[in-house]
Structures are given as structure tokens and as C-alpha cells.
């Protein structure tokens, strides 16, 4: 049975240690409970997608104790700095450009050159993040398609078999996800309405803010964004072998002659952890395209195939 731990010195230390060891834990925030993993650990981040059972890779929110900790991974323009200083800690997530050489997993960003950062206000989340000392990737701690959890019991019902422990901080005071604002470009855009009202953001900026999807001048909904970051080479999924000039991204033990292999042992979680880094690595002018071996369409394989299909369709 999953361990539901009341907040204490010991349970915080245990959860922090589990995170650093690459395990998944659930923890309270003021919005909803998060399913957390070390955001610098590809394998741990892949486990989040496996646990949630999502058929596609959505970029995840990275949680940090304060703005200073976020500065190590992303850059803040003036507008981003203003919003961070005004609303952090709180129910605001900012999408920001990754720094060159950023140590966050590429899977956290689903291959994008931005990362979503949040500094939660919840006292227990703050304690955990400071104890962990690593950035924590955390979507809401529910299986794909289910309601977001606002109590430890909700998490236990939905994901009890997938987490090392659940920190029980009682019911979430807001009970609604954070508001996501893309401040990576010249003009801000709200990508998801949430716990921090649009009006508060507009008041802070002294100007109206576009809502992605609501008008065509802000085509930055996450699903669309993902497809913009296909490799520059054509991608050919489900390829039995490489054609002359192509790189071959293999999968499984039989992949002799593969330029790179997503997982020698045929492990889908390992393949997901490697996917974006390997696509980047093969996206070089010496190749004419990237052929990708067939990936079993089950578990994380569905999300991998979804991403490969999008990359192929971009051409
Ligand atoms: O309240 C919350 O935000 C909760 C708690 C646990 O903090 N977390 C949460 O995370 O809802 P998640 O991963 O379920 O939501 C991520 C949202 C999605 O809408 C995703 O598409 C968007 O943020 N997002 C993340 N990274 C992005 C990026 N680089 N560009 C655009 N959108 C991004
Ligand atoms: Mg969610």
C-alpha cells in the first residue's frame, strides 16, 4: 500500500531523498497536488508520463523555491521579472526561454526551447523544494483524463501504485491549477487560465493580455507549439531500415547499424527519456533525414509515436 505521510521533518527529508534518487512522489501545493520528479533526470521525468498514462508528451511545470533558483535554468525579460516579483510565490506559471546548456531534461519541455517555471506558495511545497535542492517537474497528480487531485486521498486512489510516497498537507486551498503565462516572446499570452485571475495579471502589467486560442494572433497553445519544434531534418517513423544518407534511430536489441538506439533493451521508459536528446543529436547536416525504427504502440510508446508523427507531419 502507498505511504500517505503527514508533514514532518522526517517525511519531508524522505520525500526529498526519494526525488534525488529519481523516484516519483506526490506533494501538496496551494493549487492541486503535484506528481513530482527531479526535473534534471530524463528517466524520472519519463516515469511521470508513464504513471499518468498520457498518450502524448505535454511539457511539464518545473517547481522551484524562489526566483533565484529558477534563474539557473531560464532567462527573465523585464515583463517576466515584473510578474515573478509581483506574484511569486503563488499560482502563476511563467513560460521562459531555457538558458544555453540548461540542465533541465528536454522531456520536461517536450523538446521546446522554453520551460514553464512555478514557485508555489504552499509552506509544505516550499519545505520540500528547499530540502530537495533539485528543480521538481510536477503535473497534477492524476491519471490522464481524471480530475485534478486536491487531497492526498485523491492521489492515493488514482496513482497510489505509482508513487514512492504521498506527502499529506491536507486539502489544497485554491483547488485549481496555476495560470500559465508565456512570457518568452515580446508580448505575453495566457496559455491556461487558472488560480491567478487574468485581471490581476493585466493590472500588474498595466495592459490587456492575449489569451492563446482566443485570437489568431496568439497561436501559442501548447499542442501547436510542440509541432513547431520538429527537427529540421525530415523524420520518417516506422522505418524498417535507413535509406542512403539517413540517420537511423533504432529501438530494441535487434537494431544493428542504428546511428543511435533509444533503448538497447527495448524499454519504453528509457526510450522516452532519450527521445528528444537523440532527435537533437541526429539533427545534423551530414544526414538527409532521420529514419526511426518501429516503436511498440503501447504505454509510453503511444506518446513517442505521437511525437514522431507530429515531427513527420511538420514537413
Ligand atoms: O497548479 C499547477 O500548475 C499544477 C501544480 C502541481 O503545480 N501543475 C500543473 O502542471 O498543472 P501540468 O504539467 O499539468 O500543466 C502544465 C501546463 C500545460 O498546460 C502545459 O501545456 C503548459 O503548462 N506548459 C508547460 N511547459 C510549457 C512550455 N514550455 N510552453 C508552453 N506551455 C507549457
Ligand atoms: Mg493536469
In brief, what are we looking at here?
By secondary structure, this protein is of the alpha/beta class. The chain has ten helices and 15 strands. The chain has helices at residues 9-20, 42-52, 67-70, 78-87, 123-132, 152-159, 198-205, 222-228, 268-282, 300-313; strands at 4-6, 25-27, 34-38, 61-63, 92-97, 114-118, 136-137, 165-168, 179-182, 189-192, 210-211, 235-236, 246-250, 260-261, 289-292.
Write the layout of secondary structure elements.
Elements lengths: L3 E3 L2 H12 L4 E3 L6 E5 L3 H11 L8 E3 L3 H4 L7 H10 L4 E6 L16 E5 L4 H10 L3 E2 L14 H8 L5 E4 L10 E4 L6 E4 L5 H8 L4 E2 L10 H7 L6 E2 L9 E5 L9 E2 L6 H15 L6 E4 L7 H14 L2
Parallel strand pairs: 1-8, 2-8, 4-6, 5-9, 10-11, 12-15, 13-14, 13-15
Antiparallel strand pairs: 2-3, 3-7, 4-7, 5-6, 9-10
Helix pairs in contact: 1-5, 2-9, 9-10
